[in-house]
Structures are given as structure tokens and as C-alpha cells.
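The aim of this short unit is practical: by the end, you should be able to scan a pair of folded records and say something sensible about each. We start with the first protein, listed as its amino acid sequence and then its C-alpha cells.
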Amino acid sequence: MIDAIAWKFQTGSQWIHLPERYGNWRGVYNRLRMWAVDGTWERVFTTLVAQADADDDLNWAVSVDSTIVRAHQHAAGARKKGLQQANRQTTPSAGPGAD
């Protein structure tokens, strides 16, 4: 069962393409969901981390990605229908020497 679940997530394949040697894909999927709902995966992870920590075999590595992704101009709130006229009224000035 664990190998079937690992195969699915390692390959990124759809459940229906699970090799027959792992059994019916529906059964594997249902077991994965049941274990997720009842907290089995969380308990497994917690136990493995505790065991690795006790064996002094736990080594945390943190990776931070500083990539900047810019949105397309339309996604950033730019106008979608070309340029629009400003609604300001302009009045001609009298000029520098007018009184």
C-alpha cells in the first residue's frame, strides 16, 4: 500500500494509471484518504521525526527562493479598453501679462 501511494506521488501520474502490481487504484486511493482523515499520516510523520531526532540523524535545511514573478499588465489592474480621455476640464489661462 505504501509503495503504491509513493509511486503515485513520485510519478505525478493519475490514479487510474497505477500499475496492476499495486492492486486496484480505487482501493489505494480510498486507503490514502482514510489515513489522511483519521490522522495516520500525521502520526507516522511525527514518529519518524522523533526517531530521527533521538538518533541524532535529523538535519534541517531551509531553502528560500527570492524569485520575483511579475503579473501581466491586465492582471495588475491596467485599463483593458485602450486609453480613456481624462474628464478634467481645461480652461485657457489668461497668460502672464493679463489683468
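Turning to the second protein, read its sequence before its C-alpha cells, just as you did above.
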Amino acid sequence: MSAITTNNAPAAIGPYVQGVTFGNMVITSGQLPINPSTKLMPEDVAAQATQSLENALAIIKEAGLQASHIVKTTVFVKDLNDFTRVNAAYERFFQQHEAPFPARSCVEVARLPMDAKVEIEVIAVRGE
């Protein structure tokens, strides 16, 4: 197992790494919707979903993979009433990257770090 680090995603805010490679898999830590350039988080929940996905993509790209290699995502949302807007942003992201939709879980949580509305983690696989 080896750590993945990139300046194209926000730095970890705790004792963990942005992502790891493990055999053919690349696994990201949960990605908050922080823009790595500005260090700011958008207010809009759909923009937060998109930024979280872009951050996860930056990590798997550092490992030589693309959006089409993502096989599983876990979406954490502060309020499931935002599901429709998050889902639309999620769909646009994968369509824009011409990637198939991966398997996904989506759960409502009581609170996210930095009071984000969304956090997303992904698993990508080399090969097929």
C-alpha cells in the first residue's frame, strides 16, 4: 500500500492521506468540497457535490487513472432533502467525463467536517 498526494485536491485535515493505492485499487479518503486553489467551499450543495467529485478525480488521476476507472462511490450528505440536487450534479459529472456510472451508496449523516453539506469517497480500479 502506498499513499497518494496531490496539490490538485485539498490536503488532509487530519491524520490520514488523500488516497492510497492497494494492488489494482485506488481508494480515496472522503473528499470535502474544498477548492484546492482558493481553499474555499462553495455554499450551494450541487456545487459542493461537483467539487468533492473533482477532488476525488484529482487523486485518482495522480495514480494514473480516470473517471472511467471509478467503480464505487460513497456519498455522505448532511440533508437527504438535497438528494435530487446532489444526484443531478453527480450525473452531470460522470456524463461530462464520459464515464459509466459506478456503484454507489448515499447516506445522510448528522454532521460533516467543516460543516460541509457533502463528502464523497471513491474506489477506482486499474484494468477492466
